[in-house]
Amino acid sequence: MNTSIIENYNADLADRLASTPLHYQCSGLSAVTTMDNIGGNWAYRPAPIFTIPVDARKLLMKKPISVKVSREDDLFFAENETLRLYGSGSTHLEAIEDFCKHLMYFFEHYKNTPDSKLMGESLKLKELYKDLFLEE
Amino acid sequence: MQVDRRVIESSLLSKGFEKQESSHHTYFHHIYVGKYTGATTYTSRGTKYKTYNIGLLGKMKKQLLLGSTKDVYDLCSCPMTGEAYLQYLKDNNKITN
């Protein structure tokens, strides 16, 4: 083996080390992900929902609901684990729209169901849904 | 791991769930001694939802108060009986009076 290769390598290495900052730290950027057409499954950061469109009006949330939007294979999902709800669709907007439909369904369901007809987890869910909206 | 939507719906109905229809979805509420337990899920009617794959079954896991996607598969495709599901809910303190 030609020893000059090793010497050149060592010289290159020393050169690169000399140009590396002394107090190098990771920039804190999120992990690099592949493009959609290579790695098809991904997730957005949770996004808040402030209003729900119902027929011709909008219902304003007393507190915004956090919705996690993700894609798995050919479906988009919008989820809130606390409410145990998920919406799905061919686009992220369809998934959020679907989520809102479920939200309204369960809001009405728990509003119209007396406590005497509920037990266990359903009572907890009713409490969550109880003061969800302000009407515009 | 996948289950036909119609199989899911008929399985749930035979295991203590009550059906409620809306314009785009069918909701299934688990009922015990005349009360809703809080285990509730839904199916969609679009062409993309004729079969529920592992992703969709996984979303139903928390709704049905189950611990794994495999449990959802078992409940929706018959290995888990209605009695076994009810016992699971009791054992995990999901049903209280």
Can you give a write-up of this model?
The complex is a heterodimer of chains A (136) and B (97). With 136 residues, chain A is of the alpha+beta class. Chain A contains three helices and six strands. In chain A, a hairpin with a 2-residue loop joins strand 2 and strand 3. The longest helix of chain A is centred in the C-terminal third of the chain and has 20 residues, at 92-111. The radius of gyration of chain A is 26 Å and the shape is elongated. Chain B has 97 residues and is of the alpha+beta class. Chain B is built from four helices and five strands, in the order βαββββααα. Chain B has helices at residues 5-13, 54-63, 69-76, 82-91, and strands at residues 3-4, 17-21, 25-32, 35-44, 51-52. Chain B has a three-stranded antiparallel beta sheet with strand order 2-3-4. A two-stranded antiparallel ribbon of chain B has the order 1-5. Chain B is globular. Chain B starts with a strand and ends in a 6-residue tail after the last helix. Classes of the chains: A alpha+beta (136), B alpha+beta (97). The A-B interface holds A 72-75, 77, 79, 81, 84, 86, 88, 90, 98, 101-102, 105-106, 109, 113, 116-125 and B 20, 22, 24-25, 27, 32-40, 42, 44, 48-49, 53, 55-56, 59, 62-63, 65, 89, 94-97.
